[in-house]
Design goal:
2 copies of one chain form a homodimer.
Chain A lengths: L7 H14 L6 H12 L6 H11 L5 H13 L3 E5 L5 E5 L4 E6 L5 E5 L4 H11 L2 E2 L5 E5 L1 H5 L2
Parallel strand pairs in A: 3-6
Antiparallel strand pairs in A: 1-2, 3-4
Helix pairs in contact in A: 1-2, 2-3, 3-4
The structure holds a DNA duplex (25 and 25 nucleotides).
Chain lengths: 149, 149
Amino acid sequence: MAGQGHSHEQQVEAILQEIVDRGGRRTMSRQAVIRVIVDSHGHVSADAIASQVKKDFPSMDVSTVYRTLETLRDLDIVDRVYFADGSTVYHLKDHQHHHLCCEKCGSIEELPITLLEGVEDLLLKEFGFRVKQRPLGFFGLCAKCAQMP
Amino acid sequence: MAGQGHSHEQQVEAILQEIVDRGGRRTMSRQAVIRVIVDSHGHVSADAIASQVKKDFPSMDVSTVYRTLETLRDLDIVDRVYFADGSTVYHLKDHQHHHLCCEKCGSIEELPITLLEGVEDLLLKEFGFRVKQRPLGFFGLCAKCAQMP
DNA sequence: ATAATTGCAAAGTCTTTGCAGTTTG
DNA sequence: CAAACTGCAAAGACTTTGCAATTAT
């Protein structure tokens, strides 16, 4: 499994290893994509990954990024999240959390996935609805931007 | 189908009137689109609106649906919501609520928008983050589907 | 060797836009 | 009549896919 509190380098390594273990192959493209995801603290768009990777491998095509992303999702290593503002980001699955997304400065702060546990319990007790845990993005103004109008 | 027909009729009328009041024009296309939104209990995709409307007005183009939707959003009558499963729906703004979306049977249940007030207060007090109210969709299994596995 | 993977080009969604003709006020 | 609105076609953003060439094992 992907390592917990180790260096990013090791984490990339662990994920590549997991791909290999499951019959996939170790390639530069995959390494590059995984590196960006790991480095990015857990929330990047496909496009951001592509541009980032192209700095080192200009020949890399977006389709390869999407295919790598698909592979990582199939392996349950990466999760695709659709935010309430319509944007789409990818992040490591062992790094689940909600987000505070500032609409003004674009900053993204992470929040424990447990934040909504109370609400989820209520939905179960009250409606019998079993929520499937999904990282959510709350949009609004961060502390800084809320102060200076 | 004809149960609430009349009150819906009036609601459509009111919205058309509001468009006119603000300088817009009363057209059949708009009336048809608005009718579908009003009838649909508050959550329809652009595509669903288009197919619905085309039953009566086969010549209606999707672009007109999108433009009408844009107009209604500009007038703050309709809201566009991006759900966490990647789907996009439109609903009347005066009818704000969260949703319980069953991944199995596709049912959508409405919840008071106040559901997350506690969480929002916490985010404000704890992080100084001012959440902009947005209807969210919680995905999972509804009571019925949760029982029969 | 041989099966997985990639780059490229093309296609598929969903949504928006330019334009010329039509309709509303 | 003038401005607003519509249909149609085309384009744009984002994502997926077919295929021949490349690469990892």
